[in-house]
Every structure is written in structure tokens, then in C-alpha cells.
Amino acid sequence: MTDKTNLTVSRRAFLGATALGATTLAMPNVLRAQERSIKVGVYGGYFKDSFDQHIFPEFTNATGISVDSIAEPTGEAWLVQLQQAARAGQAPADLSMMSQVAMLKGQSTDLWAPLDLSKVADADKMLPQFINEYPDGRVAGVGAVAWYITLVSNTDTYPEAPESWGFMWDPANEDKLGLLALVSNSFLLEVTAKTFFGGTDILDTDEGILQVMDKLAELKPNVRLWYRDEAQFEQALKSGEIPMGQYYHDVTGLAAADGFPVRSTFPKEGGILDSGCWALSRASDKGDEAHEFINFMSQPSMQALMSRKVGTAPTLKRDTLDLTDAEFASVSSDIDPVLPRYDLYTTKSDWLNQKWTELIVG
Amino acid sequence: MRRSPPQKLTDYLPIAFPAAMLGLFFVVPFAIMVAVSVFKRVPGGFYEPAFTLANYARFLSPFFGEVLVFSLFLAAFVSAICLLIGVPFTYLLTRLRRGNQVVWLIALLGVLSLSEVIIGFSWSTLLSRTAGLSNLFVWLGLMDRPQSWTPSFGAVLTGLVYQAFPYTVLVLYPAFSRLDPSLMEAARTLGSSPIRAFLNVVLPAMRTTLLATSIIVFIFALGAYLLPQILGRPQHWTLSVLVTDQAIYQSNMPFAAAMAVFLVMASLALVGLSVAISGRKGAGQ
């Protein structure tokens, strides 16, 4: 348990960052007058550390704009803070890396300032699904990184890597799993649908969703921890206390590289592919700096650097990058991914949340 | 000393400042919360001013009822355990020499300086299979193999009691240290055993303090939202956890506010009830 310091501010963890957000709100921006700067929110923990160490300095060197990085909690918790701050005309961060569900929810309150793609030189190289647009075509966000949530396991407890998400349902795994606690960030409905119902089409109807939830309910005896705070699970996975579960491919890779007995496996049904966009709060007055930042981060060389140093998957077309096949394979997979049904989390948000809470609490 | 009740308007001046602060930092936020609880939720977005009881209607379901009952039960349980340990502890503490008392009190105050996050993660480590206390018991030969005691109801209870215990002692301490020792001496002279004297003389004399302490700990435990998440399974999540979920993750402020109002009402009702009951009992005093 040497990683205590990591515990309080891990990526997408809300604990430390709630306090951080509050501090940022309370603190006047004293740097503004002296030099050009921008406040950028990225998920706290390993993730932010890697950005601070390898990625942001490159931007500052190239443009002279200093980056004030903010540890942001789980996308949706950060979204609420940004929304409330924006109502008061404040921006705790100018740009934030936001997951897709949070992007869509932010769109509904016009939280994101429209971006001008003509100021992003490599916008045409970006895979189209990573440009996030308002229904009327304005650009709400530009793809920052993509990441996979995979089936992770402790190599001491499971010498053999599991092959399928279905392995989680094995009665032998009683009380051994750690899973994400929210319907909108665990994407377990999609995983269950693809593993047992031949695809996510079954989620089109309420009856279908309930059918998938019934299947998911069978998993409950195997779940030891439903986590909101990633650090909770990361720690337990490393020590073998909770030897299997769903977790982020990038962070698991970093932990394995640090010598912890963990592995990330792309199951045969595919890893869950989610992504983060750079999005600009409408309360920010750093529009120019933000466009420069996005322009810089969208370059093929920077996308490749992020894959190598942070372990995220690029958002640009494969052939525009100089990643070797081995490098690409380490951050991605050829297996057809589980694609989250983002539409559900905006159209049926409350109903899904209610059914989900009843499912795991009941 | 006998104080006369305030006669003129200026006699109220000394309490004007605290009253203003209470109004500004408690009544106003609470009023905002009540207002938001009847606002209209914009799904996927935020909320807009309106008057709707839909948020309350959603709460009135067997599911949330069960969660509310569990939360109240958990808080009452924590309160009971804290008193059960805290009363004898504080009584014995006040019998110690002054210097020793200070050491104990500082240690207890030390616990208060720990954040809930630290307490939660520390207990989850202490109760874990891989690094926890059970390893010590195995080493001592008391157990065959290390076991995991978290997440569980016991773990939640342990964490909450640990966190609330210093408050219990600090509230009880002044009353116990002012307790007239001659009460106990008289009881002993009349032939009571120490335990009997404690139960029949000390405790009844302390009734008001005990009630106040149990209410403080009860309310304190009712607001816990982090420890049940870290140390418990989903069925041990309190209503506060679900309020947090709605407010922080679902951006459903109206529903979160409605649940919070329910929680406040339920606890106020219980507090009122216990004060009423004890008031009737104490009427002959």
C-alpha cells in the first residue's frame, strides 16, 4: 500500500477533485495579466501526471502558452461543476477533456462554446466519430484521445488471461469482481448485450433493456465492489484483494509497466471504446488559446506521443500516424469494440439510472 | 447567578450576530434547497424554475422507502454503539488524573483531524484480506487463513463509529466532569455496588446529556455518504449516497434536493419525537 498518494486524486475520481474544483472557483486568476495561459482539465491521477510530464510541456515550448492543469473527476461529476460554474460566469477550467456522455449532456445546456475547425489544421485527418457536433452542426468538441475499458485481472490470482466478458458470470468468480457503479460510465448494458444477446440492438426498447438487466443481475453475487472512485478499484486490483473487473486499458498498462501483477485483456467481444473530447466552457475567455491548444494536440506527432506516453488510442486516422504496428496494438485492438449507446444516456437518462440503481442496490 | 429574560429590543443584540449568521448560512441555503426541490428537471440538462411535485412523487416508492429506513436504522445503530462505548469510557476518563485526561482528549481530537477519505481507505485496508488485521490473527494462530471483512455492514458500522466516537466523548466530557462525585459516594454509602450506582444514579442524572449526544451522533451518521460507499456494498448505501449520485453524477438537482428535504424532515421528526418522549419522562424533575 505504498501508493496512498495516488488514492485521493485518481483519474475520473471525484473525491479530491471536488475540493480542487471548489478551490479553483474561489481563487482569482492571478496569472492572467502576466502571461498567456490556459487552464486545462484532464482526469486526475496517473493520467494527469502523464500529461503534465510528457504532453503539456511540449505545447508550452511550442507556443509560449503555459498550461495550468486541473485534476478533473469522473466526467459527469465534472460536468455538473462546470455547468454550475458557467451559470455564475466562471470557468474552473477553460478546456476540459470530456467523455461522450458528458459531452452530450453538456450540449443540452449549451455549455460548450462552438469551436472553429478552420483553426485546427489537422481536423481533416481526424476520424469523423471524434468530432462532436451540436444537432445544428456547430462543433462542440474535438477528439482528444480514445480509450478502452477492458477486462482486467490480477496475474497472481488468474495465471491465464480470461477470454470473454462472459467469464465474469462464472460462479467460480464469486465475490471477485470490481465494476463501475454508474450505468452511464460502466457501459455494462452494452457489454452484456453484445456478449449474450448478439449486439446492442436489443437496447432499442425498454423491454430489451430490462431483459439485459435481468442477465446483468445474475452477475451480482460475483461483484465485490461497485466503484465510483477508480482509486478504490485500482488499489484492490494491484494487491489481488479484488482480482478481476473492468478498468481502463491505459492505466492498467501503466501499472503493469510499473511492475504490478495486473493485465488488461481485450475479450473476444471487444473492449469498450470510449473517448474524450476537448471542449471549451462557454464561460471561458480563452477561446484563442483553446484553439491553439486543440490545433497543437491534434497533430499526428502529438497523437502518437500520447499513445506512447499515456497509453491512449489516437483519434486520427491510422495512416496519418507514424505508430508502429506493435505500438498501435498496445493501445488498441483489431477486435471489433463494444460501442457505447450514447443515445440512451441522454434520451432515457433518468429511467435508466433509476432501474440501474434498483438493480445493483436491490 | 440568575439571568433576567430580555426586556428591551437591545437586550437581543448579543444574539443578533449569531442569528444573522445562522440565517445567512443555514436558513437561506436550506430555503434554496426547498425551492430547487420543486423545480422542473430538464432531462440530460439541468433544471428550470417551476412548481412541480414530481420529484417528491418519484421518491415515494418502496425502493427509496427501504433506503430511507435503512439509513435511519444505521444512524440509530451507530448512535447506540457510540453511547454504549462512549458513556463508560468518558466516565472512566473523568476519573483519571488531569494530565492523563489531556493525553486522551488530544488523541481523540487527533481522530477529528483525519478526513473521511483517509478514514475510509484506512479501514478498508485494515479489514482487507491481503493486508488487513486478519493476517495478524492468522499469525497469532487465532484464524486459519486471512479473510476479507470489507465491504460489509460491519465495516460500514466500524468506520462510522470510529468517526463519530470522538464527537460522542467530547459532548459527554463536560457534563461528566461536572458531575458531583458526592452523588456516587452517597449511593455507595447506602450500599450500592459501583455498577449499580452508575446505572441507577449517574445515568439518570445524565439523561439530558445522553439524549443530546445520541441526537448529535445520529444526525452526523445520517449525513455520511463516503464511508458507506468505500466500506459497504450497494445494499449498505445510505440515502445520502443516492443524493450524491443524483446531485453529482446525474445533475438532477431537483430530485437530489427533494431527497435531501425528505431526509431532513425524517430526522427532524425523529429528533422531535425523542425530545418529546424524554420531556414527558423528565416532567417530574
UniProtKB/TrEMBL annotation, chain A:
A Pfam match: SBP_bac_8
GO terms of biological process kind: thiamine transport
SUPFAM superfamilies assigned: Periplasmic binding protein-like II
Top-rank taxon: Bacteria
Any one annotated GO CC term: outer membrane-bounded periplasmic space
Entry GO MF terms: thiamine binding; thiamine pyrophosphate binding
Keywords assigned by UniProt, alphabetized: Periplasm, Signal
PROSITE patterns tied to this protein: TAT
PANTHER family listed in its UniProt record: ABC TRANSPORTER SUBSTRATE-BINDING PROTEIN, THIAMINE-BINDING PERIPLASMIC PROTEIN-RELATED
The name this protein goes by in its record: Putative spermidine/putrescine transport system substrate-binding protein
Organism: Roseibium hamelinense
Automatic annotation (TrEMBL), chain B:
Topology relative to the membrane: Multi-pass membrane protein
UniProt-listed Pfam families: BPD_transp_1 (PF00528)
UniProt keyword annotations, A-Z: Cell membrane, Membrane, Transmembrane, Transmembrane helix, Transport
Gene3D superfamilies: MetI-like (1.10.3720.10)
InterPro entries found in the cross-reference section: MetI-like (IPR000515), MetI-like_sf (IPR035906)
Localization in the cell: Cell membrane
One CC-aspect GO term: plasma membrane
Biological process terms in GO annotation: transmembrane transport
Positions of transmembrane segments: 12-39, 68-93, 102-123, 153-176, 197-227, 255-277
Domain ABC transmembrane type-1 residue range list: 68-274
The family this protein is said to belong to: Belongs to the binding-protein-dependent transport system permease family. CysTW subfamily.
PANTHER family recorded: INNER MEMBRANE ABC TRANSPORTER PERMEASE PROTEIN YDCU-RELATED (PTHR42929:SF1), INNER MEMBRANE ABC TRANSPORTER PERMEASE PROTEIN YDCU-RELATED-RELATED (PTHR42929)
Protein name: Putative spermidine/putrescine transport system permease protein
Species of the source: Roseibium hamelinense
